[in-house]
Design brief:
Blueprint (H helix, E strand, L loop, with lengths): L3 E4 L7 E7 L4 E6 L4 E6 L4 E6 L4 E6 L6 E6 L2 E6 L7 E8 L8 E7 L5 E6 L2 E3 L2 E2 L4 E6 L5 E8 L2 E7 L4 E6 L4 E7 L6 E9 L8 E7 L5 E6 L3 E6 L4 E7 L4 E8 L5 E7 L15 E4 L15
Antiparallel strand pairs: 1-26, 2-3, 3-4, 4-5, 6-7, 7-8, 8-9, 10-11, 11-14, 12-13, 14-15, 16-17, 17-18, 18-19, 20-21, 21-22, 22-23, 24-25, 25-26
Amino acid sequence: MAPEVKAVTEPVWLGEGPHWSHKHMALFFVSIFDKTIHKYVPATGEHTRAKLADMPGFIIPVEGTMDQFVVGLKRRVVVVQWDGKGEARELRQLAELDQDTPDNRINDAKADPRGRLFVGTMGHEYEPGKFHLKKGSLYRIDSDGSVHHLEKGLDISNGLCWDEKEKAFYFADSFEFAIRRYDYDVETGNISNPKLIFKYKDHGLDGIVDGMTIDTDGNLWVANFDASQVLKIDPRKGVVLQKVPTPALQTTSATWGGEALDELYVTSACMNRGQEQLPPCGSLFLIRGLNAKGFKNNNFKLD
């Protein structure tokens, strides 16, 4: 049986950063150019949003709360209070990144297995799909608010997922058209020894590497932007195990959700870069029947 792919929300401009919260039994995501944060509740089909002051790069719940989220706003990392229905209110700023390149923005972030925040940035997008290159960085923000600069000279930070068993951190600088593996120390949050373990050109793949997640077997599920698909990749062998077509050319990210964590939620975009992207492009998609499951997403632990 082929996987079932279903659009579950109306389109947004640039959907990104899906985060399944088991406590909320809801999927949170952002639409960057719309300057909105979103909540989708599968049990009711309710899709709500709140407008923010600037472009959000991610939304992740703060551990121990139901109405506080850490959000990337342009280059700032802030705590936002939101009940999931009404207006969102900024409570405080945790960090301001890339202060020497004010046109940069945050593009992706996730909390690691210990609740530390890994945040990636990218250069200014002066035209749709055209960027200032080598301006991005990767940071780690610990629960005490301390900021650690992990990588610089990046084009577009993307991906971000961990395999504790393999002591691995997976990351993508999208214009490398490849996936990096780092050695990962769960105790300190430090990463080291980057290696390119999967190159698109070696497999005849088009498009770029966008957001990704990992399943309980250690396989990566990678949003293949500009190629209308999600790829299942074995990062240890460097092989494509499965290609799952999506109805959106600009597939942006993926995460596991649902009660059993066996449903894949996939964000997408409908950016017009010379060709109109018609609905359901830009929708949040639900994919069932993949015979795989993931881990609970980690919340950000804040002292």
